[in-house]
Amino acid sequence: MKFNLVLIGFMGTGKTSLGRMLAFKLGCAFVDLDQKIEADSGMSIPDIFRSHGEDYFRQLEHQAVEEVSKRRGIVIATGGGTVKDPRNVELLKNNGLLVCLTCSVDELLTRTAIKGERPVLDSQHQARGDRRAAIEKILDERRQFYDQADYKIDTTDWSPMKLVDDIIKIVRSRES
């Protein structure tokens, strides 16, 4: 690939799982931004949020985006809120194809059911007392950012190999 393939979208839409499969099938490197941030900081994402707050996490996230966006020909899975920072979007689009993964709220409820692993959703859930309402609120807040993607793919019915093939067709058409 002459460019990066960047997966954006809400938490639980399959960015990491599909990203790994895509990188394997395309024969290129895979970078999960959240895993990179954890490795670079020596802390888990929930620990970063607890100890330093979301603003600090977003600074680390931007640094990670700056670093990985300099590379070419890789698959990048972003965190759900990475695109909230316009600087990140600009860097990622500079030499990347942005594919937004979407999913139904019902399926997101299932995929994000484990509490303690999704700090933004967990804090919204605590504040609202209703996980569905929390997901819908965050989705509404981020919709404008997700709409900046070059393509959107719905992962609700989750046939990973079909989704991988569909995304690879997009990549190949973009290369020609």
Topology order in helix (H) and strand (E) letters: EHEHHHEHEHHHEH
- In which order are the strands of the major sheet placed? 2-3-1-4-5
Strand content: 5-15%
- Which structural class do you get from the secondary structure elements? alpha/beta
Average per-residue pLDDT, rounded, comes to 91
Instruction: Compute the number of helices.
Output: 9
Helix content: 55-70%
So what's the overall shape? Answer: globular
Q: Which radius of gyration do the C-alpha atoms yield?
A: 16 Å
Main beta-sheet annotation: 5 strands, parallel
**What is the straight-line distance between the termini?**
11 Å
Low-confidence stretches: none
- Give me the count of strands: 5
Index terms:
globular; 176 residues; single chain; 9 helices
What does this protein structure show overall?
The protein is of the alpha/beta class. The protein is built from 9 helices and 5 strands, in the order βαβαααβαβαααβα. The protein has helices at residues 15-26, 33-41, 45-52, 54-68, 86-94, 105-111, 119-128, 131-146, 160-175, and strands spanning 4-9, 30-32, 75-77, 96-102, 151-154. It has a 5-stranded parallel beta sheet with strand order 2-3-1-4-5, sandwiched between helices. α2 packs across α4 (54-68). The radius of gyration is 16 Å and the shape is globular. It starts with a strand and ends with a helix. 33% of the residues are buried. The mean pLDDT is 91.
Task: Provide a compact summary of the structure.
This protein has 176 residues and is an alpha/beta fold. The protein has helices spanning 15-26, 33-41, 45-52, 54-68, 86-94, 105-111, 119-128, 131-146, 160-175, and strands spanning 4-9, 30-32, 75-77, 96-102, 151-154.
